[in-house]
What does this fold into?
Amino acid sequence: MNFLPQFQSFAEVALPGGTPEPLTFGIPQGMEILRGSLVIVHLRNRKEPSLGLAVRTHDQLPSFPVKPLEKHPSGMIFDESYVELVEWCARFYCTSLGRSLDVFWPADLGKWLSPPKTKTLKTPRSRIPATPETAESLTLEQTQAMERLAPMLDGTGFRGALLHGVTGSGKTRVYLELVQRCIAQGGRALILVPEIALTPQTRDRFQRYLGVEVIVLHSNLSAPERRHSWAQLLGGSAQVVMGTRSAILAPGLKPTLIIIDEEHDSSYKQQDPAPRYHCRELAFHIAHRQGALVVLGSATPALETWEYARRGNLQLVQLKERARPLPLPHVRIIDLKQQVHQAKELLLSPALREAISETITQGHQAIILHNRRGFATSRICLTCGDAMECRDCKVPVILHLRHDALLCHYCGRTYRAKAPCAKCGGERFSFAGGAIEKVEREIVEWIPGANVVRMDRDSVQNIGSAERILTDFRAGNFNILLGTQMVAKGHDFPNVQLVGVISADTGASLPDFRSSERMFQLLTQVAGRAGRAKEGGLVLLQSYNTEDPVLRFALQHDYEGFASWELDNRRELGYPPFAKLLSIQISGKDLPLVDRACSLIGQALGKFPQTLALGPADAFISMVRGQHRKHFLVKGPNPAALRLVAESALESLTGEKLPGIQLKIDVDPQGLF
Ligand code: ADP
Ligand code: ZN
It folds into this structure.
């Protein structure tokens, strides 16, 4: 074939949705393409043209024929700092550019790029007053916090602060003030929130006070909302954006202020697919590169964050008192060892039952937390004693009454509740391990006048229903809100005087180096929902292990005491924040192949004296969806050392035929399982 060089210059184009690494295309004569240009290319295996991001241009003639690219009709060019960010994210989390764009670009980005045809877009679901409302005047502590934070908006380099405020201290009021300053100075603010269900009220509040539109970004927007948000963002007119995790790298916004509310929340870490990034890490990187202020807010900061602040890498700004002149609620432990109700296999102790009754009799409300979905957490065969597990996942299946079925929480497979025992064919069962639906039934049966609403992933199918439950509860249509950890976060219900925790035993959660931290955070957060507007808030924690230090610290509302105790443990065991972790998971249907991959990786990992590799071990859940899972845990002094290890693990498998074997690399894994 007669192949003539048609092009003088070329572009490497990163493409979401398929090819992990950038592909080379020719730039037609006279077309100006820069790093950051949005382009359209035609791929052999796709009917539709694809949208891509030019990440490098050059004039080295490739050794293979290349196709031409086209400029995107919008002429949009993302700036250098944005391209650099995505590249950094891909590198830091050991994945490709293409996969990163998959995560941060909406699937239909191309659609939102062309200027909208309609003249004016309706702003959905938002009321922006002509004259902004005034908010309550700041408390003394809030004023002092602002005096520390406002000067950090100078935009001259990395600025970072931890706003550590007890529950109800009015952190949101400080965010409002800070965002207002930020936009008054011509800046742009990004507010990240953990839970979509919490966004609507918060957004309204910001909008009313700031008098500018707050653009929302999360994965559950309606079509008109999506169109509107992306048009504003890409059109460059967004001043304030509120969103969940992936908003951190939304194209088009170059924030000068990034607020991460409830920064300890595990939703800030992406699990699947890669890049398994953490918002906090990306926020730090943005602030370093672009000169921005990062404010991390929480009553129970992640221990990493606390340690950064202790070392002086973040300014520590504290709110030690509640904004309304009210004490923190009184916390009591109910010793389950001493409670007779166990004989009757009830989940609610008499003490908790009485407290609930009393609370609702007085016209107040209660929040009850139980972090287990379903009705019963195991089905035991009364003939052979076998506890039924999911065929494909080797985890106990959970009885759900509504479906009258046993459900695997890992793969979603369902089994008939009365299906004969797989071991012995037995047909009589005991359903043990009380989950939340059982608590609900007990409340209804045992507490006269109870009007309970349940909030968990089974009762909440979409944001609408979560919002409705919260609004109804706030309006007093229910006197008891029963839920999983969903109910612990951020809500401000003035009439809640009692919080009850069905099981506050750390030991009952997964064996993970973060179990204590998670339990402390959960207890403190949920306790913080009680007594926010009236004296006499009460928190009751049911537990078998009443001497557990985690409970003792929660009892005293002593975050700092907890942090220093738990940091000592972490230091001793060489866990974050005193080391960096990398987890490498190998999975596949064929066990010998999984083992072969493990041995290759094991050899590769042995070559790095700076890091310590543990494994291969069976993953805690050793089989999911019929896939065997093994993993390595690597401890190292810094991310760079771990990245070398990860790359060498990946390399060790190239050239080897390992069909069906998958490798999952997680930098800074949140949990070990
Ligand atoms: P946090 O997020 O720190 O738990 P919130 O922002 O939810 O706290 O505030 C707790 C309560 O205190 C809210 O009802 C809020 O309206 C009220 N509040 C906050 N700041 C003030 C203030 N300066 N004056 C009066 N009330 C305030
Ligand atoms: Zn399963």
Remarks:
- The domain at 125-319 is CATH 3.40.50.300 (Rossmann fold).
- Residues 116-122 have pLDDT under 50 and may be disordered.
- The first helix runs from residue 80 to 92.
